[in-house]
């Protein structure tokens, strides 16, 4: 298994990540014995990066992954934190963000999260069309009491090591500005054989369309 250095960090991660989302089902709905054995085998094969989220099975993925990794402290774990509609409407983004991270630490049985990703859609204005994933505004990210401020505080306290974005559905202008600001270490951008558009200039056509 090849291992790569994550730029601007001290993290070295395997080129293949162990995903624990609901589509794979194992780490949300699977048998604990199967979960533990699969994680163990992945580590034997050289996989050292595990990706999860409290959104996967309402915390079940984090709980099961935390149990399976209880004797493997040297691996890299990424989890995510959404901004709820309630915290936007009550202007409690930073406290809610902190509570989510602290709950993830308990479920994962870890003292610190290696990589924390913002798991909300970034647009110029708030949007509540999708209750499960509200659109947060630029001010909710950059402003006083916002996401970045909360993430910086958690990093200073040692509860997270690196912060980044899950960039799916974000306005690309905002994503580009945040990436250029140097305030994030990692960005999770969808890129696969079915939808490889993230690898090509936004103003052009995919080569297959020519």
Write down how many β-strands occur, each being a DSSP E stretch of 2 or more residues.
10
Mean pLDDT across residues: 88
Distance between the termini: 36 Å
Rg? 17 Å
**Helicity level, as a percent range?**
25-40%
Q: What general outline do the C-alpha atoms trace?
A: globular
Residue share in β-strands? 15-25%
How many DSSP helices? 8
Structure classification: alpha/beta
Biggest sheet strand line-up: 3-4-5-6-9-10
Largest sheet: 6 strands, parallel
Low-confidence stretches: 203-210
Order of helices and strands: EEEHHEHEHHEEEHHEHE
The multimeric state of the shown protein is single chain
Tell me briefly what this model is.
The protein is α/β, with parallel strands linked by helices.
Write the layout of secondary structure elements.
Layout: E1 3-5, E2 12-14, E3 18-19, H1 26-29, H2 32-44, E4 49-51, H3 60-68, E5 76-81, H4 85-89, H5 93-108, E6 113-118, E7 121-122, E8 135-136, H6 138-142, H7 147-156, E9 160-166, H8 172-181, E10 186-188
Parallel strand pairs: 3-4, 4-5, 5-6, 6-9, 7-8, 9-10
Antiparallel strand pairs: 1-2
Structural overview:
With 210 residues, the chain is of the alpha/beta class. The chain is 34% helix and 18% strand. The chain has eight helices and ten strands. The strands form three sheets. It has a six-stranded parallel beta sheet, with helices on one face. A two-stranded antiparallel ribbon has the order 1-2. The longest helix has 16 residues.
């Amino acid at each position: 298994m090849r291992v790569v250095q994550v730029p601007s960090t001290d993290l070295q991660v395997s080129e293949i990540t162990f995903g624990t989302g609901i589509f794979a089902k194992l780490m949300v709905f699977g048998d604990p014995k199967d979960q533990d054995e699969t994680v163990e085998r992945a580590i034997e094969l050289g996989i050292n990066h595990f990706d999860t989220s409290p959104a996967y099975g309402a915390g079940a993925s984090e709980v099961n992954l935390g149990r399976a990794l209880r004797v493997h402290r040297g691996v890299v774990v990424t989890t995510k934190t959404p901004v709820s509609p309630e915290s936007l409407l009550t202007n409690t983004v930073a406290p809610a963000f902190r509570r989510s991270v602290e709950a993830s630490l308990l479920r994962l049985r870890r003292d610190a999260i290696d990589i924390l990703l913002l798991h909300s859609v970034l647009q110029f204005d708030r949007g509540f069309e999708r209750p499960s994933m509200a659109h947060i505004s630029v001010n909710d990210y950059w402003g006083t009491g916002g996401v970045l401020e909360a993430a910086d505080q958690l990093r200073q306290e040692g509860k997270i090591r690196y912060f980044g974005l899950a960039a799916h559905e974000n306005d690309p202008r905002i994503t580009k500005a945040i990436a250029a600001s140097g305030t994030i270490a990692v960005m999770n951008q969808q890129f696969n054989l079915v939808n490889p558009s993230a690898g090509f200039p936004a103003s052009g056509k995919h080569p297959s369309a020519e």
